[in-house]
Amino acid sequence: MLCDYKNIANVVASGIDIDSTSELVSKAISARATTFLEFVQSLEEILTSTEKDIRLNGVKAFVTVVKNLPLDFFLTEELDYINQFLCDRFIDHHSFIPTVLSGIEYTVQMKNITKEMIVRYFNTIMPHFHCQSQLQNDRYTFYCILHQIFLNRLEDVRFMGPDFLYCVISSMDGERDPNNLILLFRILPQFLRNYPLGHLTEETFDVIACYFPIDFHETEESKITRNELASNLARCLTCVEEFSDFCIPLALQKLESNLIIAKLDSLYLLKLCCEYFNPIKIKSHIEEIWRILKIIIMSDKEDSTDEVREAAIGVLTALLYSLAIVKGDDKQEQLSDFLEIILKSSTRFLLDTQANLFIPSIKLLCSVGKTSKYACLKIANKVYLMLLDKSDVSQTEITRIIEGMGLITNMCLQMSIDLSCIPGLDRRWEEIGCYFLLYAQNELPEVRISALKALQISTRLLTKSQRQNYYCIITTLIKSNTTGSIRNETLSCFKEAAKYYKEEINTDIIHFNINNLNQSNDILMKFKWLNAICSLGNEEYFFKLINDIMCANLCRNQEETQMTLNCLRELVRNIENTKLLHHFTLNNGLLNCILTLWINGIKNCENFQIFRNEIILNDVSFVVNSIVKIISNSEQQRVLNQFIQYFNDIVETKICYQSLSDIEKDKYSYMVILLESILNSVNQDVKINNVTLIIQNCVELSTFTNISICNLSASRLAATLINKYIEGDESNVILNNLKLHLESNLHLANVNKKNVINQISWITKSLALKGHSKMLQWIDWSLDLLADPSYGKMMTMCFKMLTNVDDEYLNTKCFCSVKLLYRQRIFCYVIEPLVSSYNTLPEPIKENYLISILYQIDGNNYVTLSPYFSKILPVLLQLLSPEQIYVLQSLKTFRNLLESKTPVLEDHLQSFIPKLLNLSQNSKYMDIRIVALQCLYNCCDYSLIKLLPLKKQVICELGKCLDDKKRLVRKEVVKTKSKWLSIDVIKDDN
């Protein structure tokens, strides 16, 4: 490719199209059609022009061409010329600096650049470049140059000594832009660790420390957060040992601040000091550190929030780790002395079990004890003996003592400390288990719960005789009519015991009680035991037992079957039980048992109360679906191959529902529910034969059946199979035939129109989720059907379904295809036709479009709504009237938009606030009045200039609502009125 350099020079001189022209030149140079030298020679007149603007255009073209060439393109000799050129241009005129900096940033990354060139750059930059007088983008470019030097060329500038260090710190001195600061804070630690600071150590620290604590207010447009800045700054301040003499006093000084943010930043910095600096440096400040930490941790002042206390405990933990590594004598004298100080400070709170800081003090000591075994032993000895020796205490105090002892026990277990080895407890440690066992049988629920929690922690410490007592307590509580909280704690103890003593649990609790239970007709008692056994679903030892017990209790009678399936629903929901669900798919597993029982029961018209009970069938479907969903593709294929033969009537034969006998109609209707439970969650890679025929049969069954659960299952299954398996050119033919078939069914006199509409809705959703090419055709059909007087109102459910997300069907967990932002695409397609039809069609048909609009709005956020808000708002405002049927739904939409601070609403406050006030006073429904008041409350988040003109009217009208006869409404009125009264105060403070 030959370059027309005369034309290029003219373009560059004009400055109009430099970037695209330079790109063409770069391609020519890369292709060796011309040389870089020829290009530079063509710019001779431009680069030597007396007009600075023309020279600047030449420099821009020069730099742009260089930046479009690979990093390894130039030889050292060529780079030396480029380097010299950029240095000369840097001092030519101040307007050249941004362009030259961009060129320097690129060339310092080049493969053949030498140490001499790097030094030449900085010898040119340092005397002629005052960083903080430049624009933000130019300062950022300079910091990027430093980043490249720190990463790859630090050795080249090391001999420059303090001069280069001074260049770095002076360039950032006074920097305020958060984007520049976050870059600096990220790159400085590497530089400071690898560059001698010498006599500039304190100056370097001061330049960085002036930003501490970070004063930065985030906005919605902020790309970085205050926490990012703060954490990176703290790492800069602690990155080198030389900073320790300045950093620790700085953190302690800022800890005296009353601002919570400043406290949190200072505590985090102090924690890093303990982790990174030499422990010898920490020792000299230990008394002052503890004085401040004690005030924070042991105080109940307002500024000692839970977050601040947790941060202070983190510092204390880091401090103790630091002390533990100080080399000293065998008794760890320094650590021991400090632990004594902590224990002495905590004693007064430990002596008073009713004090607010009793439990927080123990939690503090537990954090301390987890830093070393030495600390753990010392604290456990002190606290255990203090708590065990307490007598004549109230029931409330007992609860706290047990909780405290449980926390200390947990600390010892985490540190692998044997309680019997703790000095002073060698003869009393069994008392602790007995103490917990005694109070686990207490009448008061709070005492019992506290004791059970402590027992769960201490399970593996109990002796053989204590465990027998423990098992008796668990058994009694499982059988008792206790509160939900006690039952949950009991099952937690049961699970913990089963983890360590499987055989004992199996023999002493399960088999002993289950054998007796099998002889009982007490359904409630059986449910309690089945529920308890299901709680062991994550222990492989009990898999066969759970499987066999569940199978044995299915189909005995309706009540037992319902009870067993309820337990199974909870069991399959628990993600901890994944391995158990795989066990259920084995040959003699629960999945085989359930499917075999219900297939035979439905086909043989057995016990209708069990096999055709809709509630039971729904549970069966859920359990089977949940098991199939969790297993691998190969296991799914095996299950499908094993059971598909029992569904041949649906899978291999075209069904004509009206020609079937009544027995066959019922049989097919219930069998399709089981078929859906198997196929719903199979992966798309699992092969299913005759998919098109199954879809057609499902549509047939869903259309004509009178059984509601069958209609739902058949409709969903057809939609699921379309989503997963209908692909390619044949899909259009299949979908066109389905559409024609459903259109003809809508006009049949003997067909339930609701069934057909339901099937259309599910197929439309299936196509919309997938983003199928036929999606818009089906959505258009749905829009047209809204206008039909006979079934238009039913069709509104399609538009609700299009925005709803179902946890069990047509989602990615079931391996369906779901496109990103599908709801937003549907909304943008349908909203204008819906609003247009609502505005033009007569009553009552327009109501169908209104309902569909509300469903679509509810399913989308303000970002999607905002371009169409001018069309939607008039519709919503019409509904804000006490006489409107859909006022509550419209109000909830407003509330959601107001809660998300939708900007576009701010310009319409004067339109809807009077309507909200009217509803809050005059609606006869409490729910409407409450939501209207909540909307008014959320209006206060908008700008003061928009709210002030309305303030007087709103407060006056809200005063009339204070006499509302409903307490919940009055409560909302007080809250809303208070917010409006304070808006100008709040905004001024901000």
TrEMBL record:
Family matches, as InterPro entries: ARM-like (IPR011989), ARM-type_fold (IPR016024), MMS19 (IPR039920), MMS19_C (IPR024687), MMS19_N (IPR029240)
GO cellular component, one term: nucleus
Main localization category: cytoplasm
Pfam families: MMS19_C, MMS19_N
Domain MMS19 C-terminal: 551-937
SUPFAM superfamilies (alphabetical): ARM repeat
Location(s) in or outside the cell: Cytoplasm, Cytoskeleton, Spindle; Nucleus
Alphabetical GO biological process terms: DNA repair; iron-sulfur cluster assembly; protein maturation
Domain MMS19 N-terminal positions: 40-298
Keyword DNA repair: yes
Record keywords: Cytoplasm, Cytoskeleton, DNA damage, DNA repair, Nucleus, Repeat
Quaternary organization: Component of the CIA complex.
UniProt family annotation: Belongs to the MET18/MMS19 family.
Function: Key component of the cytosolic iron-sulfur protein assembly (CIA) complex, a multiprotein complex that mediates the incorporation of iron-sulfur cluster into apoproteins specifically involved in DNA metabolism and genomic integrity. In the CIA complex, MMS19 acts as an adapter between early-acting CIA components and a subset of cellular target iron-sulfur proteins.
Name of protein: MMS19 nucleotide excision repair protein
Organism field: Sipha flava (yellow sugarcane aphid)
